[in-house]
Write a structure and sequence with these properties.
Length: 290
Amino acid sequence: MIRRIPDIAALDAWWSRSRHVGRPVLVLALCLFVGGCIWAASRMGLSLRALDPRALVLLAVLAPVSLGYSALGLKLMARAGGTSIPFSMALGTSAMATIAELLPIPGGAIVRTGGLVKAGVGLGRGSALVLLAAVLWIAAGALGAGLAVVRLNAVAGWALLGLGAGGGILALAWLATLAGARFAATMLLYRVSGLALLALRLKLAFAVLGVVFALVETMPFVLATIAGSAAAIVPAGLGVSEALAALAASSLTLSGAAAFLAVGVDRIVQVLLSGLIALVWVVRDRRPLP
């Protein structure tokens, strides 16, 4: 996809360098992920028959909803860049970005930026919008996790709240300077709604394993998922998000194995359905894969 976008040689070079660096890291991350899932399933004594099929179906239904959410974000950023992007293109780009995050580093950001550039947004502006949207996403996750754990662990809770507030204010101020206060407020609302969607997905992922608790209690795992994905050295945070979730669970007196596996189940469902949508998009428009 990137190679079909004209006049972005710097982006193409970034992609090529990242691809070579990311391969050995991806292999290590896959080993961590697969090994961790096997350990977690063994620790919980789980089998395929023990999984809740209704929760799994609902989780699968949320996968295209999540892609639609990502597509909406691309449309918002394109509008901030002074242009527009068709929803079908935004949806396909989001699906490709989800898959690309498992490839070189940072594949997802490259694909999203490339999609904005192809829609007519300048490379510098598009890169800044993608970066600031990511910072705001991390900040929102930190705030949500801080609110969820502050009563259980005041030090960790207030630290997360401070980091989230600081990062969020910085990102919003920069977004307001770049595209106006209205766009910054819209992106804040967009990111908060995204937290709710991710929390619901993780709640269902836990339910697949037979673990049920309140929606707000998923917020530390929401942050683990976001923070792991933001770890640029590991493609898509593969294995890192799951490990962070297991650590968060231990501090909340929950099963670390269940947390690792729940985040892994959510990842597998999202990647499989994103891959299916990306394949349909590629075949329909005869686009090359990233």
